[in-house]
Fold this sequence. Notes:
Layout: H1 3-23, H2 28-52, H3 57-83, H4 89-116
Amino acid sequence: MNSVELKSRTKQFSLRVIRLVRALPADKVADVIGKQLLRSGTSVGANYRSACRAKSQADFINKIHIAEEETDESIFWMELLIEGKIVEDGLLHDLMKEASELLAIFSASAITARKNK
């Protein structure tokens, strides 16, 4: 997968997170978790784009790790939505699968970048 495709994929992930947060129930717990998910989920694409503009290999590694961390955090918030019985598991299955795939891509990119350093 090239960087253009991954930029598009991470942007689509962010847009899906936005739609999910908008659809959450209007209660205090969903609001707090939703805000956290919105922050981490939308930063995935932003941090990947930042990594693509890295000024050095070390800068790339640092920024791709941030994208990795934000993706993992997004998975955590989605798990809380499911385990807290705020959203049904089936409704988040595809989005969590995409987050897991993005996480694997970022992890592999970081490993490769460290080896090539």
